[in-house]
């Protein structure tokens, strides 16, 4: 079927999808990697927090002995700053890991199109389809598996720590805190590793689903190619219009020419010589109907026409409109211009003339 999406998305389609936020990514990957990184930074954070707490605790008796509002506010300010500086490395680490995970899954881009409200998102039938479709089934499976894995990790961790806590009545507080801290970090790391494995599977599924959604029909690929490269019909029309404009410009310059070298029927080359601007310049040139039009305008505007078959052909093949003639044509063109000047001196330059030097070599 022509409407079946069987073609891989083009680069233009992928770029458009990225701009619209349609990227195969899962937020779980960044969250679990962030948790794993947090388990590495957390001992440092807890250590700094405990150290700062001990310092503040040591100042409390001084405040009790000499109550003062300014001193209380100073200790409160110090405590708040201590919490911020202790938690800051943990927060920066998790933020950096989250940004890196997002970048690894397709780059970081603000999809402004997602902020535009779409009323079709309020369609209950579309929402019901999402609730009972394959995507909903995968989300349910993922949630159940995630809950089961995290429950198993929690059970294995608590199974080891509870007996230690039951027998920790004779242990000092610091030792007890070390046991709890070690257990919590172990729990976080085990949960993060399991979560990363699940997020990897989720990323594979989401990526595959997004690629399937971005697939294109053969007609869409063909249409996109036309849009990017240009419709051949439109391009030909543009070329035809450009050629017509170029012809019109040439026709407008024929009356300003000093001489038109003809073949005499098939080729016509109009030349204008302005000594202050350099060598003679081609102002119009053409074959067939174009040459006939140039001869007609030359006749109407009394521009001299000189028949020189060899020179006309050489100029047509070796020159371009709007440019000076090449050096190898200087001698032959100079003789034609001199011949035209002699005709003007006698008062009979207009019309078609046979060049007396048409058989001579061009030097």
UniProtKB/TrEMBL annotation:
**Keywords for this entry?**
Cell projection, Cilium, Flagellum, Membrane, Transmembrane, Transmembrane helix
Gene3D superfamilies, alphabetized: secretion proteins EscU
Cross-referenced InterPro entries, in alphabetical order? T3SS_substrate_exporter (IPR006135), T3SS_substrate_exporter_C (IPR029025)
GO BP terms:
protein secretion
**Record field: transmembrane:** 80-104, 179-206
The UniProt entry's GO CC annotations, sorted and at most eight, read: plasma membrane
Q: Which Pfam family, an example, fits this chain?
A: Bac_export_2
- Enumerate the residue ranges of region (Disordered): 1-20
Q: What is this protein called?
A: Flagellar biosynthetic protein FlhB
Biological source species: Actinoplanes regularis
Q: Give the classification, highest ranks.
A: Bacteria, Bacillati, Actinomycetota, Actinomycetes, Micromonosporales
